Amino acid sequence: MISAIINIHQMPVIRYLLTAALLATPLLATDLPLMPLPAHVTVQAGTVAIDSQFSVSASGPGATDPRVQFAAAQLSKRVARQTGIPLFPKAVTKPEDATVIIQVNHRAAHEPPQRLGDNESYSVSVADGHIRLTAEEPLGALRGIETILQLVQQNHSPDPAGFSVPAVTIQDSPRFPWRGLSLDVSRHFIPADGIKRTLDGLAAVKLNVFHWHLSDDQGFRIESKKYPRLQELGSDGLFYTQDEVREIVAYATMRGIRVVPEFDMPGHSTSWLPGYPELGSSEGPYEIVRGSGVLPAVMDPTKESTYQFLSNFVGEMVTLFPDEYFHIGGDEVNPKQWNTFPHIQAFMAEHKLANAAALQAYFNQRLLKIVTAHGKRMEGWDEILHPDLPKTIVIQSWRSQMSLWQAAREGYQGVLSAGYYLDLMYPASTHYLVDPMKVPLTFKPKKPGDPAPGSPADLTPDQAKLILGGEAAMWEELATAEDIDAKLWPRLAAIAERFWSPESVTDIPSMYQRLDVVNRWLEWLGLQQRSNLELMRQRLAGDAAVGSLDTFSTVLEPVKGYVRHRHKYTSFSPFNHLVDSIPPESEQARRFRVAVDQYLAMDKSTRSSANLRATLSDWANAAQRIRPLLQSNSLLTEDLPVDDAVTTLCAAALDALKYLDSATPPPANWKQSQASNVAQYDNKPVGDFVIPIASAVHSLVNAVQ
Amino acid sequence: MISAIINIHQMPVIRYLLTAALLATPLLATDLPLMPLPAHVTVQAGTVAIDSQFSVSASGPGATDPRVQFAAAQLSKRVARQTGIPLFPKAVTKPEDATVIIQVNHRAAHEPPQRLGDNESYSVSVADGHIRLTAEEPLGALRGIETILQLVQQNHSPDPAGFSVPAVTIQDSPRFPWRGLSLDVSRHFIPADGIKRTLDGLAAVKLNVFHWHLSDDQGFRIESKKYPRLQELGSDGLFYTQDEVREIVAYATMRGIRVVPEFDMPGHSTSWLPGYPELGSSEGPYEIVRGSGVLPAVMDPTKESTYQFLSNFVGEMVTLFPDEYFHIGGDEVNPKQWNTFPHIQAFMAEHKLANAAALQAYFNQRLLKIVTAHGKRMEGWDEILHPDLPKTIVIQSWRSQMSLWQAAREGYQGVLSAGYYLDLMYPASTHYLVDPMKVPLTFKPKKPGDPAPGSPADLTPDQAKLILGGEAAMWEELATAEDIDAKLWPRLAAIAERFWSPESVTDIPSMYQRLDVVNRWLEWLGLQQRSNLELMRQRLAGDAAVGSLDTFSTVLEPVKGYVRHRHKYTSFSPFNHLVDSIPPESEQARRFRVAVDQYLAMDKSTRSSANLRATLSDWANAAQRIRPLLQSNSLLTEDLPVDDAVTTLCAAALDALKYLDSATPPPANWKQSQASNVAQYDNKPVGDFVIPIASAVHSLVNAVQ
């Protein structure tokens, strides 16, 4: 029972959630379960009750905006869902009598959908029985409503049973105007309902760009009426109809989210070619790619027919996507065919294109003309950056901040994705510390002491403004529609805070405290990061009870980085293993590590290992109880080694605590043998897993004298 | 950790789920995780593998039926969902090469939707690498596909990792042609997505009637275009649009489910009257009812305008509901206004109507003409039975089997709902033992030894055929859209087995074994009986970890019958308490009771209490760990007494096991004092709860010598 260490005294407490009577000191902004943390928050004494009289009014020139009307109507429904209080539509006679009084000072600068840079600022004041939300423009009202919803919390005894919002004053606006998620739906298709759930989540944490990676080698995921063989032969039947796309774009628009489509060209484009092999550099025939990697197929940039096709295609797509930006991919072009096919070599010679990069720049310039002719600004990954391209393009960097800063010096706008790859299974804290305006912690100088190239401090204010923000990226080779929610959430909320909140907001314990609450709050939107994984574990457990497998899974994390790709999965591989059914980051293991650090830092006379031992016993018992299951279930037998590892680690830790708690020294050789038992799992994978308590256990063993 | 007693050796084992190599005896039908159990099942050695080559073909004259085409397409999708194996649409060149070969011998006797009595029989044969499903007509194919999906199970080691279907031969057809759920959406509205989830569940357990209780005193839930004030003033804005109704009827039709609408008249009709007070017996004005009970408002059967309104209204509704039957309610008419209002008394005298029942019969005859004129057969609750009504009507009995048998003797068709009220929170076994053709166990003769009136054995075969089947009923005064799945499932699956399977299928341990597997299987359809309750408990726990509250909740059940109605809830009452967040029946407590019985029946020298003690310790620890939470959370403080009760019971049981396991006798007075501690909870509620291990703990204490 993990709750041994997560009783309400020991767990990181969001102090607001305790009754005010218990609090000796004023609340801080970071005591509120808000994520992203607003720019300015002050907390006063008192609350406004949320009960069956709850009502909402919206006034001011911007209040008639359809997005504000929708969000205000949703506010009541979501409060009802979060609290269980039935709320029926109510006619509020005077706007000033409503519980939530929304004032939108101005109409939007233009009709929906929003554009980059639209005003998202708002303020909230909770006092005198009302929650007052004031926004300059409609988008600010949407952002403020999300903040209000996060503030609704259960009262604590001796306050009356029910819910309330604490008395606060908030002034808030985003640090960056471009805050997004790039989602790959090519490697594994995510049906429309999964996209809508994701959009609900994005809006809830104030992200405002949904970058839709619609095509790649493994699948072409959107219906073209002009070129229907794209989806007919490129998608296995798994694609969005144009009606679905329109519905999703409208859904995003109502939530203040821009939709930027990406069609990756000229590489990562195999799925276009089964239907239209004439687009490819080789003659074909082509098939959808079932594996992954940087593949040989690449469009033929030497044929005019390629550009005619792309012009028609882009012309069709821009009718579906109203956003100003159009992403053409441009990453990881495999130069092999271009460098070897005679007709392409001849073309390069003729056009004095020295190498494949120059040929890609030529292709991009042609594409730029097409995109521009259809009224769009072009976006692409790092590789498209080339002096011949105009300053209107936007660079999305998968390489590093440094390349963005360099681009900014040259006058290009940029968006950072390096450091925000959610598919690599790193903890929230890793992404949280990545900042578009800071040298990454992972930067390794060529020579010790060398500065990072181009510190952002050297950028002029105008250049700095060209860094528009960032996008988390989720590549889907190893993720499916079944587990996408858990791959995105809650880690994406921490990244959202990085993009929205002031640069100074960097306290990791505070982030995790708030992330934990927000993670559960997100479930009221229908996100399935918990329930879907439980169902997957239930499938693995089959006929047996899943409780011990659930407990056991809380001491595991998937391997990090690209290690799991060694299995060479294909589109036909089932992702129904234990490693697929656990979250990328174990909150229970993180708490255990914090508790171990606290224990080791305390004086021997005052510390207690009771909670640590209870947690370890729960994990050890779970490991023991599931052994018959692992031995008998065909999908679980592969997990016996990790069961051994957890058993070893828990035993070593319990042993170490025994010696640390008592005056008795361990037997000779104990420390050496346990340290070597434990070291084999410390920062080392066991199959597809890491055991994220191994380093803490190592510390416990090392602390024994 | 409840899993202490639910390890795979001790838990009721569905033997098929163990590897065939471990089995010394042939499998039985009840070893298969099938519910409802088919009429005839034989099990052979061997399996058919389910892997990424899975495919489906459908042939024969009935295979082009849209329902068969849809179900066959869903079969692949659902196998993919159940197994995690990616399945792309495949072109099968020869039907006989498919994994699942569906043969439908005849077209349906008429176009969809189905009608009462349509052929639902099918057979399944799993052998030689194929699953052959043969049905006479399209509906049989739908039923057989559900059976096949229940057979898909994970292989057990040493078989290869993956899934398979065991070699079986099944011939199956239903016992009763009318197998339904009556769902009240008036007391609490269930949005369209909840209805669709419910329809998925009904189809999965072969239920074929969705009886939609669309109006009652507390809400009028369907859009009328002829009389729009019905929904405008009668629904708080919570109603189904006609588009939604058409969509839901089509959704049900594709799943082989009839939709029978009910408009309750002339009582239970207050919600019609705010918009159209002229329909009521009094002058009004009327308001939607916020409480519950048998209320005074009743339609005025003396005015011709009432019948003109109802004729127009029924005329509009029959365009939405294609089923042959139309339910007019007719239950619980409060006679007070009829018995006291002069204009109604005068009408009764003029028409020689002796009492309110005679006046209702007059109303029903007028209504019958309207319903018949619009091409429908009339259905109603017990009270509509009257000698003047023709034999074409169907009686739904909330009173008992005996009244149905009596009606059958008089030539009326009937459907049983008495004994199947899911809102009363009784365990699955209680409903399971209720049979439309058997004297209920609750029957109490007036004098000891008196036989039950009208044994079904006295019915002629033709009369017996008039008992069409049954309907579970879910009344929604205390249930909401949030917890409806848990109120229905899994208990509804046990009732479905009663209606489908042979009368002889009555073994309760077998039922529970299969129910447990099927309950989890149903979640793959998107049913939320587990995940929604978890979310509700998380809301209660607020900032604290929910694990211990989850464990604690497994030793609780809600009070049974109508006890909880003493709180006089209204439409504004939040149902967000702990009792709302737990299932009606605790599977863990049931297993504990079974284990106690086994322990007490065994010889002292061979029995072990280890698992019992582990379970009790888990519950006791959870009760202790959540005390600070119960003390601090405003919605949980009311639950401190049940925490005390669980603590007392677990302590008494652990104490008793200590004495039962050892040779040491207890101190003097121990037994007396513990028995009195325990007796206060044995079959007695604690607040809104019962503690379903209390009787077993009582037995343990009593067994101490």
Characterization of this structure:
Two copies of one chain form a homodimer. Chain A has 705 residues and is of the alpha/beta class. Among the domains of chain A are: 2-172, Chitobiase, domain 2 (2-Layer Sandwich); 531-703, no CATH class. Chain A contains 23 helices and 18 strands.
Task: Give me the Rg of chain A, rounded.
Answer: 27 Å
Considering residues with a beta carbon less than 8 A from a beta carbon on another chain, report the largest interface and each chain's count. Answer: A-B, 78 and 78 residues
Query: Low-confidence segments of chain A, ≥5 residues, pLDDT <50?
Result: 1-24
Oligomer: homodimer
Strand line-up in the sheet with most strands of chain A: 8-9-11-12-13-14-15-16
Measured as a percent range, the helix fraction of chain A is: 25-40%
Supply the helix-strand structural class of chain A.
alpha/beta
Main sheet overview of chain A = 8 strands, parallel, barrel
Principal-axes shape call of chain A: globular
Count all strands of chain A and give the number.
18
Number of helices of chain A: 23
In whole angstroms, the N-to-C terminal distance of chain A is: 30 Å
> Could you tell me the strand content of chain A as a percent range?
5-15%
**Overall mean confidence score, pLDDT of chain A:** 93
